[in-house]
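ARCHIVE ENTRY
Sequence with per-residue tokens
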Amino acid sequence: MKKTTLFLLTLTFCFTQGNISGYAIFDYENTTGHDYFDIERAYLSYSTDISDDLFFKIRLDVGRDKDVIQVIEPATPTGVDIDITMDQKLSAYIKNAYVDWKCEQGGTMSIGLIGTNSYGVQEKNWGYRFVDKSVLDKYKMTNTADFGIGYSHKIGNYNISAQLLNGEGFKKEENDDQYQQAVYVSLVYGETSLNKNEGYNVGLVINYHTDGQDNGDYHIDTNSDGVDDAYQDQNGANPTARFYDSKLIGLFGGWAKDKLRVGAEFNQFSMGEIHTFTTLDPASNPIHIKRTLEEVTYAVYANYLIKENWDVFARYDINDQNTKNSDINIDGILNSDDLRKDEQFLVGAVWNPTKGFYISPNINFKDENQKRPSNTYRLTFMFKY
């Protein structure tokens, strides 16, 4: 008890030397007859200036965590990953813990668990994170935070940022894959905070992950019975060799003047190639499978200030996923499959009755995979402190 009290007193003293901020999202939701209240997200941030050129920030993120079991189905040549959600609970994570160092030559160096540079400007163009995540975050096409180092510099109206990261994101630990790297690059021209200021922006984001695992040098193994049965590594195992890179290219733009703000995005994500060495074909050739996932999103959104503390907004998204499978030993074989195509149309209003408090009645018209249209009616609250 004494140790706990001492720890809390020390923590309180530290917090009094810096700035504490954050927000919480609370809502009432009705979807196909299910009514409930819930806390969607809560953030608590502490920041302080360590010196004139060194800034420190730590941010706690509380949200719904999913217990997921991943099942690999071996019946198909490429295997099928199936995620089964078992439970959801509120869990706390450290979202950010980093220092910003103002360099003498200009620009800022960020070191630690940093926010990635791929989605922040678009989130401000959209302006209503508490109602719905920005497109890249919503469809999990990018990590929002990761361990690494970054550099950003503003030159005139240009904002340039580059980051070298682990690649797993802030909820996962670094693994032992032989090939692993993540490079995030962002280039923005114009105003980066259209939710607060007038102006316009156009931008480009590029994410590149290289990741994979190699079990060794492969060769056709001839057993004592003289049968060439599979590709094997130097230890005689029949592995599945997974090499895969992923890349994201995103284009976006926004404009704000007087009472109107509009924005648009196009994002293309690909993850592949997954190479699987399997049994031999009838001609005793090794079958080499390539599987590539491609995902494209389109989004447009707008909001209009109808009076001093009332906004109305609308947003339309499309998320289109496809796979391509090919056997490199058979010429001309290329199978393309539509995995799913989701659409959503979100409309609503935001009322700001007092400082730090926002209320948004909103409706989300969803069409999941063009098979299960459903509507979600929500009353969303944000407490900002």
User: Anything to note?
Assistant: Confidence is low (pLDDT under 50) at residues 1-10, 68-86, 214-241, 328-333. The longest helix spans residues 2-16. The two ends are 30 Å apart (CA to CA). The chain is about 5% helix and 65% strand.
